Structures are given as structure tokens and as C-alpha cells.
Amino acid sequence: MSEQLHFVDAATEEHFTAMSLIHALGWRDTYRDAVPAEYMAREITDGRWISAFRENYRTGACHGLLLYRDSTPVACINYCQARTTNYNTEDVCTFDNRGYEDWGEIASFYTHPNERSKGYGGLLFEEALRRLKADGYENAFVFVLRENEKARRFYAAHGFQWDGTFTEIPFPPDAVCVDLRYVKKL
Question: What is the pLDDT of residues 128-163, one digit of tens each?
Fold first, then answer.
């Protein structure tokens, strides 16, 4: 029996919960050597982003999209017009997007760690880019952790390149991560 892949626009508590869990698992796996362990243990809970995803849906500030394999969510992405304010007030990250206000942004993107290297992330990522273009955006960007070589290669394979801009993200008590802005004309 072949698997059935399908996109689901995040609109229910079940969707927001699945997205938050995938985010938390992704953070714990991807950033474990970059973000302080005490911060991760305290802040990166399975339900951390549920209220933010619910609010994004309610206001339309950011669109959540999941990729399901049959009834299992395997990846999620949030896309929007470039953030000029941080939508998630629970987050330590802030972004200076002056000069990019009319761009589309991939605000977050994670594949469940157990589902990586199966092509799911690429399908979801390209669908979000297609939707940004259909919404009228001519350009898009995504921030990626400087040390995350695998993600940087992924974005480059999808036509993105670093434009030389970055943002520093402080994590208590004393870590600073650097996110690079990768851009693409849609």
C-alpha cells in the first residue's frame, strides 16, 4: 500500500499542537549544540508555540501549513509577509526586516527528526514558495543558523543564497546565535 501525502492548512487545535511538537523536536535536535541546554530544557516545550500558531491563524499574520503522510504530520512550515514585528511574543528572536517589508518570508520550517531525508521537507518548502508567489510576492527569504550547514545546503539547493545580512539572537545566559538571511527571487 502506498503512502498518501497531502498538505493541510493549519486551522485547528490538533494542527497547532502537531506543529508545536514538530518545532520543539526540531529545535532540540538541530540546535542542541548551539542553544544553552538550560534554555532548551526550560523553554522548548512540546506545547510552546500552540498559542502563537493559534493567534497567527486568527489574525492571518502568518500561515501554517503541514505535510501529512496518511494521518501522520511529518513537516510544518509558517510563511507570511516579512515580519516587521515579532508575531510570537514568547520568542527571544527579533528580526530587523527593514528593506524587506514587501518580501515573503519563511518564518519557520521543521521536519520531524524521524522523517528527515525522505523528501518531505522539499515538497512542503516548494509548496509554501508556490503559495507566496501566488499571493503576489516577487521575492522571499528565510533565516538559517550559521552553523546549520545541512539547512544551508537545503536552501541553496532550492535556489536561495545568503545576501550578506544576518541577525544575532541572544540566548540566556550567555550564548549568541547568528542567523543568516537566505534570499530568492520567486
Answer: 999 999 999 999 999 999 989 999 999 999 999 999
Nearest to 167 by CA among 141, 185, 132, 186: 141
Strands (E) in 15-132, as ranges, are 63-69, 72-81, 104-111
Pairwise CA distance, residues 183 & 151, whole Å: 14
Determine the 3-state secondary structure of 13 from DSSP.
helix
- pTM value is 0.91
Q: How far apart are the first and last CA of the chain?
A: 36
Which tens digit of pLDDT belongs to each residue from 95-115?
Answer: 678 899 999 999 999 999 999
Q: Which residues pair with residue 166 across a beta bridge?
A: 180
Instruction: Find out whether the peptide bond into 36 is cis, omega within 30 degrees of 0.
Output: no
E strand residue ranges, the chain: 5-9, 63-69, 72-81, 104-111, 139-145, 161-171, 175-185
